[in-house]
Amino acid sequence: MKHAKSLAPLALALLLAGCSQPPEEKRAFEVPGVLCGTEVSPALLSPLLPAGGEEIEVKRSDLIGGGMMTCKVSVDGATALSLGWNWGELGEPLRRAANDNPYLKLAKQETPDGRVVYGEESGATRVTCEPVVAHRKGNAELIATLKVFEGRPDADAVKNLLVAYAKELEVSSEECVRKK
To answer: What is the superkingdom listed in this entry's lineage (predicted)?
Structure first.
């Protein structure tokens, strides 16, 4: 009994130490609702961004001559994710188009209708542009892409953000013509 009383404080200390958790990271920045001119829901973007951080920066890069755009989202100077679009060959299987991009090779899942391929860190989807902008040569279709770099991988979050981003491109992008 004498030893049991002396072990009680040690047992309590070990129990409390096991229950303590590291402090939760907090964001000092506000999750944006617009990425490079395209509206996105902060609730869809947030799960893919780092859990903490001081500063967020959004930067657009266009390929000279058009045909491709990348929107890079950085937190504290590290690229968290990028969203973008490019013109691809009409009718090309989306999985092949996605795998042509070395950053999208991680896209493992596909929606039943084949319009979205995605994984925990990347994805691609078709954007319905009707009619295709007249200045485009030949038959082409717009493909939206997403890649998580230093953010948090999550396949469902990738798919949800990508689908919402593509729908917004359909109605707001200068690359797509609004359906009548």
So the answer is: Bacteria
- Paired residues of 125 in beta bridges: 116, 144
Question: Looking at residue 8, what is its pLDDT?
Answer: 55
Low-confidence ranges of the chain (pLDDT < 50): 12, 14-16, 18, 20-21, 135, 137, 178-180
Q: What is the pTM of this model?
A: 0.78
Alpha-carbon distance 31 to 23, whole Å?
21
Q: Domain spans of the chain?
A: 59-175
